[in-house]
Write a structure and sequence with these properties.
Blueprint: H1 14-22, E1 30-40, E2 43-52, E3 61-67, H2 71-78, H3 82-92, E4 104-110, E5 114-120, E6 128-129, H4 138-155, H5 171-182, H6 184-195, H7 201-212, H8 214-222, E7 227-229, E8 238-241, E9 244-247, E10 254-256, H9 258-269, H10 272-292, H11 300-324, H12 330-347
Antiparallel strand pairs: 1-2, 2-3, 3-5, 4-5, 6-8, 7-10, 8-9
Length: about 350
C-alpha cells in the first residue's frame, strides 16, 4: 500500500489524493484538490474538495485529520499517540451496525512518522456537525444515549476475551493514564486559576484533593464491568442527519465502564436545568436499552451511583483542557466548565469517590 502519511496541510496535493483514491479504485483519476477549511485543536482538521472523474463512485469532499499544529496540543497528544489510536480504531474495530460513524477513506500511522486519517466529509451528504457549545434537547440526548447503549451492549464484558482488541488496554493507553496522573495536580491548578469565578472557591480544595489522589480514584472508577467506550462524547463530537446522531473523534476510545460515557455526555451536552429535569429518565432509558440488548442484572440505582462518581471526569477534562489551552475554543470550554461544575455540585460527586 502506498503511503498516505503527511504532516502538514500543504502536503494534501493531487498526488497525495491520488494515493488515497488508489487504495479503493485504481481507475479513478484526481485532477484537483482545494481547501474548504482548516481548524486546529487537539488535531489539525482539514476539509478538502477533490475533483476526479467518478464522483458517483467515490466521495469528492473529504475530512482529514493530522497531528495538531499547536505545540501544546501536540505535546499532550503525541506521547499517548491519540491520533494513532483513532487510525487503528477505524482500521480494526467492528462496530454494531446501529452506530453511525464517518466512512474511512484512508487511515495510516507509523511510529515516528505520525498519523493521517481521511474520512468522508459528512456535511457533503447532508449531515450537520455539532459544535462544542451546543445544548441538546431531551429528545436529542435520548437518541445519543440509545446509540451509546447499543455500542456498550455490543462489547459488554466480552472485549477482553477478543485478543484482537488488547491494544485498547496496552502500553500506549497505560502511558496516557500515567501522564494523566503525573500532570493532574499542575494542570488542575492551572485550569482552576484560568477558570476564575466559573469554579466556586469551595470546590477548589475538593478538585485538588482528587488530583493528588487521581490514581486511587481511577482504580475505583474502573472497578466495574468493562466495555468499549468513546470517552469524549461532548456536543462537538456529534453529527446529525434527520435527527439521527452519529459519533466523531475516537482518539480516546478504550475499555471502561459504560455509564462513564453517559455521565460525560449528559454533563457536557445539556444545560444544567435540562439535565436536572431529565437525567434520571435518561439513565433509565440507557438501562432499558442495555436490557433490550440482552444485558442482564442492570440495577438502575447502582447506575445512578456510578454516574454520580463518573461526573468528576468530565469536570476534570474541561478544567485540564482550559489549563493546557488551544484545544477547544475558549467560549465553548468555559461553557462546558459551567455545565460540568453544576453537575458535580448537584451530585456532590467528589464525596462519591472513596479517596
Amino acid at each position: 500500500m502506498h503511503s498516505i502519511l503527511v504532516s502538514k496541510p500543504s502536503e494534501l496535493n493531487i498526488n497525495w489524493a491520488q494515493r488515497v483514491v488508489n487504495q479503493h479504485h485504481s481507475d479513478i483519476v484526481v485532477s484537483d484538490v482545494s481547501f474548504v477549511s482548516v481548524d486546529i485543536g487537539t488535531t489539525t482538521r482539514i476539509r478538502i474538495k477533490t475533483k476526479h472523474n467518478a464522483p458517483d463512485v467515490f466521495p469528492e469532499q473529504w475530512f482529514v485529520k493530522l497531528p495538531s499544529l499547536t505545540w501544546r496540543a501536540k505535546i499532550v497528544t503525541a506521547l499517548p499517540r491519540l491520533l494513532h489510536t483513532e487510525v487503528r480504531f477505524y482500521n480494526e474495530v467492528n462496530l454494531p451496525l446501529s452506530l453511525t460513524i464517518p466512512r474511512s477513506l484512508g487511515a495510516q500511522s507509523k511510529f515516528g512518522r505520525g498519523a493521517t486519517l481521511v474520512l468522508n466529509d459528512m456535511t457533503d451528504i447532508g449531515f450537520i456537525l455539532g459544535s462544542s457549545g451546543d445544548a441538546l434537547t431531551f429528545t436529542q440526548a435520548a437518541l445519543v444515549v440509545e446509540q451509546m447503549a447499543n455500542l456498550h451492549a455490543h462489547f459488554w464484558n466480552n472485549i477482553h476475551s477478543d485478543h484482537a482488541y488488547n491494544w485498547l488496554d496496552g502500553p500506549v493507553r497505560r502511558l496516557e493514564d500515567f501522564l494523566g496522573t503525573a500532570l493532574a495536580v499542575p494542570l488542575m491548578k492551572r485550569g482552576l486559576r484560568k477558570a476564575g469565578k466559573l469554579v466556586p472557591a469551595d470546590l477548589h480544595s475538593q478538585a485538588l484533593h482528587y488530583a493528588r489522589n487521581r490514581k486511587k480514584a481511577m482504580r475505583f472508577l474502573n472497578d466495574a464491568p468493562q466495555t468499549l467506550i468513546h470517552h469524549d462524547c461532548h456536543p462537538g463530537n456529534l453529527f446529525w442527519h434527520q435527527s439521527k446522531p452519529g459519533l466523531l473523534d475516537w482518539q480516546l476510545v478504550r475499555f471502561g465502564e459504560g455509564i462513564s460515557d453517559i455521565a460525560y455526555f449528559l454533563s457536557t451536552s445539556l444545560d444544567p436545568a435540562v439535565r436536572r429535569e431529565h437525567e434520571v429518565r435518561l439513565i433509565a432509558i440507557y438501562a432499558q436499552c442495555l436490557q433490550a440488548n440482552g444485558i442482564a442484572g442492570i440495577d438502575v440505582n447502582m447506575l445512578l451511583e456510578r454516574y454520580r462518581a463518573h461526573l468528576i471526569y468530565s469536570f476534570e477534562a474541561m478544567i485540564v483542557t482550559l489549563g493546557i489551552g488551544g484545544m477547544m475554543s475558549l467560549e465553548s470550554n468555559c461553557e462546558l466548565i459551567r455545565r460540568t461544575v453544576a453537575s458535580v455540585i448537584d451530585h456532590d460527586s467528589f464525596a462519591g469517590i472513596p479517596i
